[in-house]
Each structure stands twice: as C-alpha cells, then as structure tokens.
Amino acid sequence: MQFGAPAEKYDRYMGRFAVSLAPRLADAAGVIAGMSVVDVGCGPGALTDVLAERVGAGRVAAIDPAPQFAAACRDRNPGADVREGVAEHLPWPDDGFDAALSCLVIGFMRDADRGVREMARVTRPGGTVAACMWDIATGGMTMLDTFWRAVRTVVPDAEGETAMVGTAEGDIARRFTTAGLDDVTAGSLTATAHYTGFDDFWEPFTYGVGPAGSYLAAMPADGRAAVRDACRELVPDGPFPLDARAWFATGTVR
C-alpha cells in the first residue's frame, strides 16, 4: 500500500506514535555512533531522524515508495541518502550497511518476505536487521483498536487490519528465521501519543491515511457519522494519552 496523504497529515495520524516508537526500535537494533544504517519505508522520517542523530546524517540511507514522504524525509534530514523506491528492490549494493531497520512498514510491503531478504542483502555479515509492526491481533495498538471497535458497531463483519503481516506476535520473527537470519530475537515495544481532546483524535482518521482512513473515506456519510459517534463513546473527555504496542524482531546476517 502506498500512502497518498501529505506528510503533515501522516504526522498527525500515525507520526505522533512513530516519533515515540522509533528510538525504541533503534535501541533494539543496537544502533550506535559509527554505524552505517538504512531506514526501509522511512515515511516522512521519524526513524530516519533518530538514526541521523545517533550516527550522523551522512551515514544514513532511507527509502519510501511515496514521493511526498521521501521528499519530506530528505528535507528533514539534509545529508542523508533518501530515495524513492520499494523495500523489495533496494537500490544499494550487497553488504553496504551495518544495520537495516523498518518501522511500521513490513505489513505494507507487497512481498514482505522479499523485503526482509533485501534488507538482509544490503546488510553486512554480522550486521543487524530489525523491524516492527503494531499489535493489531490482540488490540495492543489502542488508537486503531478503538477505531475498528467503533466501525464494528456499524459493520459487524469489518475485517480491519488483522490480516496484515507482522500484526500478530511472532510473525516478524518467523519471517526473519525463514529469510536465513541468525540469532533472531523478538519482543514488544511501547509508544505513547498525546491528544488534546476528541477532535484531535478523530480528525486524522478523516485524512484518508492508511487502511483505517481509506475504510472510513469509502463509507457513506451516515456510516462515517455513526463511527464518529461510536468513537466518541470510547474516548475520554479532555486531554488524554494513548499507548500502543508493537511487535518487533531483530536478526543477524550470516
């Protein structure tokens, strides 16, 4: 799935969680000064920002299929090698990086297993591959779980995002093992976002970003209004935080 929304709208929708999640994934991957790293599916650059802070922009590469996201990431990280393209066909040579990371992207790859193999290909032997994706299967991503619970009060058989790669515990780790990575470890990471109130929570869903936004945009007006009302019943009054859990895995390239 390629995102068509402007970077600023993604920032309000999912970016507010990504900025909290990105440093935790970088920690899990062991990213430290002196390393060369690539961010696969960089979006507007939440993880790229973190990587550039740790190793310097000149040692960071990034790629995203959405041209407006690649452009935003490039603008926000001068000196980084930011390109437009897909995970399944990375434009870098073999063994070029110490680590390849992918934050909240594996579920959107057209061929996730090929994407993982490409991440391993561009990482040197002994280097690290790391990826994470929201816990959709058990409702650990509270913002999305709230939305889909509201949708199912209107459309009881709505599938939501549970079929996406990486959204069930252990799925990313299994794919890493199948791709031939060694020392595969898995666990969970937690992120937090803060909202000023219900409107701040609801409005980003109307931007058409991601599966939830696309689903809402395709509903008739009365359906959208019903989902909004159902969300309103599930969200606290006044300012509030929401936590989100992501499943992650890391592996070592042979």
From TrEMBL:
Membrane-spanning parts: none
GO biological process: methylation
GO molecular function: S-adenosylmethionine-dependent methyltransferase activity
InterPro entries linked to this entry: Methyltransf_11, SAM-dependent_MTases_sf
A Pfam match: Methyltransf_11
Official protein name in the record: Ubiquinone/menaquinone biosynthesis C-methylase UbiE
Source taxon at top rank: Bacteria
Keyword set, alphabetical order: Methyltransferase, Transferase, Ubiquinone
All copies of domain Methyltransferase type, residue ranges: 38-130
